[in-house]
Amino acid sequence: MKIVTRPRVYLVGRTQVDQEVVRQFLDEEATTWQTDGETGSELLCELAGRVCYLSFGDKQGRRSNHDYLTNIIAMEHGSVLEHAAWSFIVTGVSRSFSHELIRHRAGWAYSQLSQRYVDESDAAYVEPDIIAANPELHDIWLQAVEMSHGAYVRLAQGLSEAIKQQYPALPIRDKRKKAREAARSVLPNATETKIFMTANARALRHFVEYRGAPDAEPEIRRVALAVLQIMRVEAPALFGDYDVEFLSDGSGAAATPHKKI
C-alpha cells in the first residue's frame, strides 16, 4: 500500500494577452500605454485597472507594472485581479483536503478524480504528519486504512459479479461504474485524490491568506504555501507582498500586510 505525505502542485495554464487587439483598442482611443510588465496576468490586471480610470497616455502616471499593481493592492481595488486566472493540477492530497478546498467557490472551478469511474483498488493514502510521527498511532491508522482498502477491493469484486448477473445487458463501462460507486462508500477520507483547479488572482490571494494561515489545517496549508511559492515567481507583482513565516513546529505560514483584497 502506498502512503503519501506530501502534495504536488503543477501550474498547467495561465492568462495570455492579445497584444495586437490591445494596440487596436489604444489606437481607436487615440492614446498609448507604456508598461514593463512581462506576464500576461500582470499585464491584464494593469490594463483592467487603467480602463477603470482611463489612465493611458499623458494620464498614465505610474510606468512600472509592479508599482501600479502594488498600488492597486494597497488601495484594495481587488476586482481588477479577478481578470487573471491560472490552472493547477494537485496530487498527493486526501479527500479530506478536497472537501475543504471546494468550499472556495467564487472565482474557482474544479474537476476532480471520479471514484465512480476510476478503480481505487491500487489507491494511495495520505497520512497526517502528526500520526506518522507516532509509531503507535501510525499502526492504528495503517490498520484502519488497510481494513477499509481490503473491504473496498472485496466489495468491488463481489459487486461486479452480482451486477453481471443482475444486469446482463448493461454496457461494461456502466457495470464497472455501478460497482465502484457502491464500493467507494467504505473508502476513508485519507484516500488520495487528484484535482484540477482554476482560480483568478483575487481568489488565489484569499485562498493563500486563509488556508496559509498558522491556524489552518496542516494539509491544506501545505498546498496553499506550494501555490504561493509558484505564484511569487509566476506573478511577483500580484503575490510578492506575501512572506512565509516559520512556526514553532518548523512548518510555514503565509503572511501579508494587504489582507482581504
Describe the structure.
The protein is α+β, with helices and mostly antiparallel strands and 261 residues long. It has three domains: 15-82, no CATH class; 90-113 and 195-255, Alpha-Beta Plaits; 119-190, no CATH class. The protein has helices at 19-28, 40-53, 65-74, 95-101, 129-132, 135-166, 172-183, 201-211, 218-234, 236-239, and strands at residues 3-4, 8-14, 85-94, 108-112, 125-126, 192-200, 243-246, 252-255. The strands form three sheets. A four-stranded antiparallel sheet has the order 2-3-6-4. A two-stranded parallel ribbon has the order 1-5. A two-stranded antiparallel ribbon has the order 7-8. A hairpin with a 5-residue loop joins strand 7 and strand 8 (252-255). It is elongated, with a radius of gyration of 24 Å.
Order of helices and strands: EEHHHEHEEHHHEHHHEE
Could you please say which CATH topology of the largest domain applies here?
Alpha-Beta Plaits
Percent of residues in helices comes to 40-55%
* Terminus-to-terminus distance: 43 Å
Mean pLDDT: 96
Strand content: 15-25%
Number of strands: 8
In CATH, the architecture of the largest domain is 2-Layer Sandwich
Radius of gyration: 24 Å
